[in-house]
Design brief:
The chain is mainly α. Helices cover 73% and strands 0% of the residues.
């Protein structure tokens, strides 16, 4: 029995656009973290990153949702969070040889949850274009 990808992951558009925006959001967060870690104590840097990364992600998501080919907010939030989580894991293992990239008080989970929420909320703020409503 064959199941088409559209039934499993109901994407209406190509995934590269979503992944590029997710990568851009992660890259902005990584630059923010690098700046904060080099200028602040790790606890303060982690706290500022925890709330700064979702704000940067929301800005990138706002740009993404302006396009006609934007996915639903839930699919986009899952995509952005998956990209961020996978790249955070790779960077933390490669950079330090361990998973703790941030202070244990904040960890990686809280920023990822806030990224998910910020992306989904931003998507809900943008009404669907007329072309999307007809689908």
């Amino acid at each position: 029995m064959r199941v088409s990808a559209s039934h499993v992951f109901p994407a209406r558009t190509s995934m590269p656009r979503l992944l590029v925006h997710g990568l851009a959001a992660w890259a902005l967060g990584a630059v923010l973290l690098a700046i904060l870690v080099s200028t602040c104590q790790i606890t303060l840097a982690s706290a500022l990153y925890t709330f700064g990364a979702p704000v940067l992600t929301a800005l990138v998501a706002a740009h993404y949702f302006r396009g006609r080919e934007a996915e639903e907010p839930l699919i986009t939030a899952i995509g952005f969070t998956a990209v961020a989580g996978a790249l955070d894991l790779l960077v933390s293992i490669g950079a330090r040889g361990r998973v703790e990239l941030l202070d244990p008080a904040f960890g990686v989970g809280l920023p990822l949850m806030l990224v998910f929420g910020a992306t989904g909320f931003t998507g809900e703020m943008f009404p669907p274009s007329p072309e999307k409503r007809s689908l």
